[in-house]
Design a protein that fits this description.
single chain; 379 residues; alpha+beta; Butyryl-Coa Dehydrogenase, subunit A, domain 1; Butyryl-CoA Dehydrogenase, subunit A, domain 3; four-stranded mixed β-sheet; 52% helix; 16% strand; globular
Length: 379
């Protein structure tokens, strides 16, 4: 495994870095305070190919690898976790599901709009009473002639109100039975499909998280992705790739917090010397750098396996689990290094601290990752 960044990866990372500094950084706290979802920024990212990173050129995408994808999310998340999260959800979940399981006609119909961010995508698996317990979902799809009628509510959905298109996993069989769910695509404007309550979150406040409500929402069978009953299996495959994106998001937040703390420790003087001279601070920085490097390597390993089309469920879960926990720890230590200033909104680390926690929860909690890892170990 050679994890030396290619010239292409470096160029793509620089593009994302420049965009984040110019188009995102000046507005980060404004969006965080107002909880505005900055749609225009995503349309601009679409023009650069950042919203269809893994999509083949024939469908309007950038046709890049997971290595470039990791670099893009990291660079954006170093500046704003919220924008990084929405970028990851759009690419990996909604767009990724159609890319993996759509037929050619479906790909031609929807991927060009998603890859250019003409349409923002949402992905609906979670419900109020079925977070980690996804097999017990209440949102149903019932076949009527050549149509399906969807009823129920999806919760905690990124872009649940704004997204112009949603991939939705619905129960089509009996509760807790095998192969009891199916994936469908629902376009905004379809009768019976609406956005619900927007969540008021601790962090990731500029990334819209909301309910999606389906009330006798009728869609044609041509909107079904894959076979009836394959929805849950498809979702698990989608989440394998999605976990690479959340690991990358975690790395971006961790690196952003670490770099801010490193710089501050060299500029902040106490007792007539920079605080980085004190072992209490320098050892914290050493731990932060080491843990970030380890998380980085785990994520690169998952990217490598994914690109080589090899099994990577365990490695993706390891990367997501470890990187997300590192993000929380590093952000916490960064606030400590800043001291009282770190607790104010005048410095960036308090936002990294708030944003980081989501990484240990979204797309499978740390506890779920341990279940995935241990099952793979004990096969």
């Amino acid at each position: 495994m050679n994890f030396q960044s290619s010239e292409l990866t470096q160029q793509v990372a620089q593009t994302a870095r420049d965009f984040a500094r110019q188009q995102i950084k000046p507005y980060v706290m404004e969006w965080d305070e107002s909880q505005e979802f900055p749609v225009k920024v995503f349309r601009e990212m679409g023009k650069l190919g950042l919203m269809g990173v893994l999509v083949p050129e024939q469908y309007g995408g950038a046709n890049l690898t997971y290595f470039e994808y990791k670099a893009i999310i990291e660079e954006v998340a170093k500046v704003c976790g919220s924008v990084g999260l929405s970028l990851a959800a759009h690419n990996s979940l909604c767009t990724g599901h159609i890319l993996l399981f759509g037929n050619d006609e479906q790909k031609k119909r929807w991927l060009p709009k998603l890859a250019t961010a003409e349409w923002i995508g949402a992905w609906g698996l979670t419900e109020a009473n079925t977070g980690s317990d996804a097999g017990n979902m209440k949102c149903t799809a019932v076949k009527e002639g050549n149509d399906w009628v969807i009823n129920g509510t999806k919760n905690w959905i990124t872009h649940g109100i704004t997204g112009e298109l949603a991939v939705v996993i619905c129960r089509t069989g009996e509760p807790r039975s095998k192969n009891n769910s199916t994936a469908f695509v629902v376009e905004r404007g379809t009768a019976g499909f609406s956005g619900g309550k927007k969540e008021n979150k601790l962090g990731m406040r500029a990334s819209e998280t909301a309910e999606m409500i389906f009330d006798n929402c009728r869609i044609p069978d041509s909107n079904r992705l894959g076979e009836v009953g394959d929805g849950f299996k498809q979702a698990m495959k989608v989440l394998d790739g999605g976990r690479i994106s959340i690991a990358s998001l975690s790395l971006g937040i961790a690196k952003g917090a670490y770099e801010a703390a490193l710089q501050y420790s060299q500029e902040r003087y106490q007792f007539d010397q920079p605080i980085c001279n004190f072992q209490g601070i320098s050892f914290k920085l050493a731990d932060m750098a080491t843990e970030i490097a380890a998380a980085d390597l785990l994520t690169l390993q998952a990217c490598d396996l994914k690109e080589r089309k090899m099994p990577m469920t365990k490695e993706a879960a390891m990367a997501k689990y470890y990187a997300s926990e590192v993000a929380v720890k590093v952000a916490n230590d960064a606030v400590q290094i800043f001291g009282g200033y770190g607790y104010t909104k005048d410095f960036p680390v308090e936002k990294f601290y708030r944003d980081a926690k989501l990484c240990t929860i979204g797309e499978g909690t740390s506890e779920i990752q341990k279940i995935v890892i241990s099952r793979e170990l004990l096969k």
